[in-house]
Design goal:
Elements: H1 3-12, H2 14-34, E1 36-37, E2 40-41, H3 45-61, E3 66-67, E4 79-81, E5 84-92, E6 99-101, H4 106-115, E7 121-127, E8 132-138, H5 140-150, H6 152-155, E9 156-157, E10 168-170, H7 174-179, E11 185-190, H8 202-209
Parallel strand pairs: 5-7
Antiparallel strand pairs: 1-2, 3-4, 4-5, 6-10, 7-8, 8-11, 9-10
Helix pairs in contact: 2-3
Length: 211
């Protein structure tokens, strides 16, 4: 079974789509609360969001069809589904600023761009609190088609010299074009926050209380 067919099922399953619309804002709000201190969201929120999406894939396709222990030598790949690589990305607000890879080394960033060619499907979550966003599936075929048309210089944005942006990004408007591709799919999500009484210590306190 090809990844494209599997991931397409995620977007064609009406029950799953309804669950995503209903639950994803709540779960991502929990992720933000877990990652916050003094009202500021920490970098660890990205890993928690990724785990939420991986759990969704496990829920839909089964743990036996997933590989989550991906070697660090695969910088883009977050999970393997039926043997095919998938990259999971999240962004708040517009489609700008999404990292292709994280690195602080300027030479490695340039080397990555010079050798880059799209190699895996993307699951992208666009978070847009108090407005609409969505979950997007961007197949590798769509990525390669745009890459071949506009070229690597227009597809990949390198960090500016002397700055510390921590990564190589998709160039402006690239993800907007990819999500609009005829092969891409999406589930529109209304990002409304819930009233959550959150205590970051409760889980650990409950564990301390166990015999």
């Amino acid at each position: 079974m090809e990844t494209q067919g599997c991931l397409a099922q995620l977007f064609e399953d009406e029950e799953i789509a309804r669950k995503i619309k209903r639950r994803l804002p709540y779960l991502f709000q929990l992720a933000e609360l877990e990652s916050s201190r003094a009202g500021k969201i920490g970098m660890q929120v990205g890993s928690i969001r990724e785990n939420i999406i991986v759990a969704l894939l496990v829920y839909k396709f089964g743990e036996e069809n997933m590989e989550t222990e991906i070697p660090i030598t695969e910088p883009e790949v977050d999970v393997s589904l039926f043997g095919e690589a998938v990259s999971i990305k999240t962004i708040t607000g517009s489609f700008g600023g999404v990292k292709v890879i994280w690195t602080v080394d300027a030479a490695k960033a340039k080397e990555f761009r010079d050798n880059y060619y799209p190699s895996c499907d993307i699951l992208l979550v666009r978070i847009n609190w108090n407005d609409t966003g969505g979950l997007y599936y961007i197949p590798v075929q769509a990525q390669r088609r745009l890459f071949d048309r506009i070229g690597r210089e227009s597809y990949i944005k390198l960090p500016k010299a002397g700055t510390n942006p921590r990564g190589v990004e998709f160039a402006k408007n690239v993800l907007a074009q990819l999500t609009a591709d005829s092969q891409s799919k999406h589930i529109e999500i209304n990002w409304r926050k819930s009233g959550i009484d959150f205590n970051p210590y409760k889980r650990w306190l409950d564990l301390w209380r166990e015999d």
